[in-house]
Design goal:
Length: about 350
Amino acid sequence: MKKLLYLPIVLLLIASCARGNGLYTETRVIMGTYITITLDRSGMTDDGLAKAAGDAFARITKVDNLMSTYKPMSNLSRINTNSGIAPILADPEVIENIDDASYVSSLSGGAFDITVGPLVNVWEIGSKKAHVPSPETIKKTLPLVGWRGIVVDKKAGTVFLKKRGASIDLGAIAKGYASDRAVAALLEDGIKGGIVACAGDIKVFGKKPDGSAWSVGIQNPRGPEGSVIAKLPLTDMAISTSGDYERYFFNDGKRYCHIIDPHTGYPASGLMSVTVLAKDSWLADSMGTTLFVLGPAKAYALALKHPELEVLMITDSGKILATGRFKGMKIAPVPAGS
Ligand code: FAD
Ligand code: MG
């Protein structure tokens, strides 16, 4: 497993998750990161809470088993190794993610593109082997990227990548999707309120046992882990942060992060972090990455066109760009620079 992601959005309540507060909390490592589930204990027995959390973790594990590129036998890995060779039967959840990703690709002019897999592989950001590839390598890799090269046959239930060597990476959408699936399981099990946090992809539902909203903090992209630039009360919303401080490396004083511009083949720059609020976690997750790729000006213009999203962006120079409820909110200053 590579370096575990720390939580770009900080669950402020974690320290107070003792039983006496009416909360149940459990953390597991899945998808290479920490997943924390926090539940309102109201009306539930200890066994009922443990079962509900277990059911939610099982949904997340299912996403991991189907969609991990770190597992050679996952459904997604089999689609990737068969690129240019043969269509592969795909689980409906994999097809749902690919459909959702295509929607985000089309609304962003391809800034979001799950076929970045080959570029992710040549940069190896997040591993000890991370390095700046030669311009020739980038040039050779770029033609393999392009979301329109994914063929989904819904009738047959298959996915086919047209180009040999192409590959799909769902790293920017499937953690959000997993949060959505986990919350659905918790509601089915009768939980009244809670939080599912797949690292920085968080979904909250209902309220705290005292009837107040859950409180979520946003990580300072240049501060120590756990330092926040803003706190916001949330009910029935998803929030995701994409940042350049999670998986990155420095070369000649320049920071290279794991979010890649599919048009240039190089890591995106111009923003330190993007936080997106939306109803669904898959959308908040994928749009955080999308806006990060687009850079400040284009991202802000796109955010203004989508009132279903509320966005907080911090540029490289520490400037705040905000829409929705983030506008006018007190945000702690972030120093400019790498
Ligand atoms: P986000 O901004 O949400 O996503 C960035 C990631 O999306 C990149 O790392 C890349 O994979 C992809 N991406 C980059 N550019 C683009 C683009 N332009 N368009 C679309 N996608 C892009 N990590 C491990 O170390 N070990 C594991 O075992 C492991 N298993 C995983 C299993 C699953 C099912 C998933 C979804 C992820 C797994 N990860 C694992 C990956 C890890 O958790 C990722 O770093 C994480 O998904 C990136 O999320 P983020 O919130 O930091 O960034
Ligand atoms: Mg994301």
